[in-house]
Every structure is written in structure tokens, then in C-alpha cells.
Amino acid sequence: MTICVSVAAATIKEAVEAVNAAREKGADLVEVRFDLMAEQPSDLTPLKNIPIPKMATLRSKAQGGAWEGDDEAKARFFRRAIKAGFTLIDLEDDSPLLQRRERDMKNVERVISHHELDVTPSTSRIIELMLLAGAKGELPKGAFAVNSVEELHRLVHAGKMLALTGKKYVLLGTGDFGPITRLRYRRLGSSMTYASLEAGKETAPGQVDVATLKRMENGIITGITGMPLGHSYSPAMHRAAFASLGIAGTYLPFPAEKNELPLLMEIVRELDIAGLNITIPHKESVMEHLDEIDATAQEVGAVNVVVNRKGRLIGRNTDVSGLGQAFKAAGADLGGKRALIVGAGGAARACAAFLRREKANIVIANRTRSRADEVAKRFSARAAGLDDVAGMEFDVVVNCTPVGMEGFPAELPIDPAVLRPGQVVMDVIYNPERTPFLAEAEERGCQTIPGREMLIYQAMDAFEAWTGQRPSYEIMAEAVRKEQG
Ligand code: NAP
């Protein structure tokens, strides 16, 4: 493993402290970003005897740094750095200094770097840049802003091609998708990666701190895709589960457009991502890009969890099992009961799949009647319009629409006359915890189950599928409570 900790310091004294700290934290080498110093130090000898390989960098403004001096000043500075024990220097791939091999720069390794701050170029351009920069046996480094799945795919694909050359190179991403390119740098074929000394001390966007990088060397990466990926409780729940079980793991966002789904699935395989949650609007469209869909997900016609089994991607639906455990934990007996499902989308289908297993008699009421008909047919249920059910008798009522969710008007999804004392009423919405529908049901003497329960149990099942370990309900519930504030 080769981790280069990149440090920024205002003074030489602070630089010494930072280099020592990086060494103590297990860095293999340290890059000192001298361009970020208030002014270049006249004496570099305090760094000389710190026993760790050191790289001197004066990143120019055009490539994302703060260096504004000319090439001669840069060359003079590097000569001093080499005298002070620096064994690596960073030169940008458009630097005139590249042509020079001065006598006192002979015994130094040169990293030839190329930075694109706004975009990741095409795969072929990345390869070209790296081959050109590394042409004279020097170490090429490409750092590209990766802000979409498509851009990440370009980088991953370039890494795969470059690895075939057998040459050494450094590839990494800045931007939103930067962290995965650092955590999985080996999978990009990169011979090293750059880390920050600690969180909050990044010298480039997308850096991961050295302690996390070391902990995650063989760690488990999971995450979520959807579009847009609004605020979700899933990262907090899964990260809390990893921490409580002492598993090196993390949970990252992978926002993707529909046309990026096949690329994302390739990335999951290539970067050894253990699995993903799939959320709106991809729960159905992701299915065609997977190797296998399990029986429950097929029944529902939607996948909310992808599990990577040695490169084979399996689609599952833990909304069904999550819903079932939420009912079970509440002590609800559903066998043969009369159940009303409000809505005919993905959550409604998961609910219908579960209730059919319980042999409940199901009515599906939906705003768009034709969708209710479709889902009812699929699950041997009866279909109804939203206005048809107020006079009917039910033992169980489940809201599977977003009506009452935060950001929506605080309305009821159905005529409350359908609510009767003693019924079991669930709302799959988890934000807010007590929806207008649940509040109304409580007032009418029903037993209520908040959507938060389903959320937690589906997450527990997903986590277990990815890691083989069952997280504690309490840990995940606590993470949700903290998020709810
Ligand atoms: P979906 O596939 O888009 O389906 C939405 C359903 O709600 C459709 O039947 C739609 O009716 C209906 N609907 C939407 N707006 C409505 C309105 N203003 N009035 C009446 N009906 C309306 O969505 P989904 O994936 O099933 O998700 C539904 C809800 O479940 C979301 O709030 C989601 O957050 C929640 N959910 C919770 C969990 C959990 O773990 N607790 C898991 C999954 C989903 P039409 O057919 O007429 O459009």
C-alpha cells in the first residue's frame, strides 16, 4: 500500500509538525504543498531528518494550486528541496522544466502531474495523457474532477487499460466521486494515492484522510443510487452499523441518471463495491442490468438492494422483508385478515407481496385506477378507487403513497372514515415519523406502525446481505433518531 499524505502548512514549523504527524499516522510518503505556504521558507533543513520520503510540490494556479512564480524560481526552489532531503518533486506535464535534467536534479524521482479541475476527459484522452507523461520512465499522475457516474466510468476504464501496459501511474479523482477513487486506488491500477492528514485538512477536494484510507484498505464499500439523491437516513444507519460491529466499511452516494445505470453496475464490479441500495426512480430500471433477480424482487417487480457476489450482481427486495418484520415486531397477526393498501407503486407492490404471503384478503386503492387494477391482478387482490373504500371493513390499512410526507401537503391519503378502532395502521412514510395519517389513526383508536420501522428492518436486511453480519436494530434506530434531530 502506498499512501502519500499531502500536507499544507503556513510555516516551516507547521510543516515539520505535519510531516511528523503524517509519519506517525502511517503515511508511506509525504507531499509538502509549498505553494500553499504564505511564503516559501528560506531554510528547509528542519525537514531534512524526518525519516520518511518527501515530495516537494509547487502547484501552479492553472492546475489548482497557488504558485504564481516563474519556472526559474521553481527550479531554484526544487534544487534547495533536494538538498534538504526531498527525493521526489512534482512537475506539471506542461512545465518547461520537464526538458531539463540538471545535474543536481538527477537523483530525484519526478512525478509528472496533470490536473483537470472541471471535468474527466475521455478514457482515450486519459490514457494518452498518462502515456505521454510517463514516456521517459517518470511517474505520471492524473487528477480529474469526477462529478458523475459517467466520468467515474471513464477513469475506471482508463485504469483498466493502463494496467495492461505494466507501467506505473497514479490516477485519482477530485470532486463528488473523489473518495471512491482514493479508497479503491489499487483497483484503478494506481501505484499510490494521496490522502489528507485528517478530515478537514484536505489539500484537494475528494481526498480521504490517511487513517480512514488505512482502515479501509480491505474495507467494504456500499452505497446508494437514485436521482436526485435527496437527504437520506441510509448513510447514517449503515455507517453506524459498520462502526458498532467493528467492520471497516463505508456507505457512499452514487447519484446516477437512468442511462448511467449500466456504467454504474460495471463500476460496482470493477471497484469491488459490496452492494448498493436502489431508490427512486431506478428500482425497476436497474433490473435489466443485473445478473440475477431473486424470487421476491421478481414477484414485486422492483429491486431496492443490489448484492455483489464475486462480480455477480443479484437484485433483491428487502422492502418486503422489512415491512414484514415491522408488522411482526408490532405483534400484528395478519393471517387471513382484510387489508387495504393505499397506492399502487413500488412500496404498494412490496406490501402486497408480503400480505399475500400472510394470506390476507387485499384491496388495492389508488388514485389512478388502472394502476390499482394492474397491481391487484398481479397479487390476486381486488382493485378500488380512492373514493370507493370508506364504507368497507378492514383489519389492516397501509398507506403506500407519499401523501403526508415532508415536502408534501399535510393531507390524508384516504378518507379517514376507513379507520376504525382496533385496526393495525401503517404508514410507509418515515419523514415525519408521525404522519397526519398516523395521527388520525391514533385518535381513532388504531394500533399504528411508523414507516421508520420498515426503513430500519429493510436496512438491516440489506446490511446483512452485503456483509454477512446482522446489525443491531437499536444502533440503526438511534442513527435515525439522531438524523431526525
Ligand atoms: P411510487 O412507485 O412513485 O408510487 C407512488 C404511489 O403513490 C402511486 O400509487 C401514486 O398514485 C400515489 N400517489 C402519489 N402522489 C399522490 C397523491 N398526491 N395523491 C394520491 N396518491 C398519490 O413510490 P413508492 O416507491 O411506492 O414510494 C411511496 C412512498 O413510500 C414514498 O413516500 C417512499 O418514501 C415510501 N417508502 C418507504 C419505505 C420505508 O422503508 N419506510 C420504503 C419504500 C418506500 P398514481 O399511480 O396515481 O400516481
Explain what this protein looks like in three dimensions.
There is one protein chain. With 485 residues, the protein is of the alpha/beta class. 34% of the residues lie in helices and 20% in strands. A nine-stranded parallel sheet has the order 7-6-5-4-3-2-1-8-9. A six-stranded mixed sheet has the order 11-10-12-14-15-13, sandwiched between helices. Strands 18-17-16-19-20-21 form a six-stranded parallel sheet, sandwiched between helices. The model has no long low-confidence stretch (mean pLDDT 96). The site of NADP nicotinamide-adenine-dinucleotide phosphate (NAP) has 26 residues, from helix 10, helix 11 and helix 14.
Indicate the topology:
Blueprint: E1 3-7, H1 12-24, E2 29-33, E3 54-57, H2 71-83, E4 88-92, E5 109-116, H3 123-133, E6 139-145, H4 149-163, E7 170-174, H5 178-183, E8 193-196, E9 208-209, H6 210-215, E10 220-225, H7 234-245, E11 249-253, H8 261-270, E12 275-278, E13 292-293, H9 295-300, E14 305-309, E15 312-316, H10 318-329, E16 338-342, H11 346-357, E17 361-366, H12 369-378, E18 382-385, E19 396-399, E20 424-427, H13 436-443, E21 447-449, H14 451-467, H15 473-484
Helix pairs in contact: 3-4, 4-8, 7-14, 7-15, 10-11, 10-14, 14-15
This protein binds NADP nicotinamide-adenine-dinucleotide phosphate.
NADP nicotinamide-adenine-dinucleotide phosphate binds near residues 347 and 401.
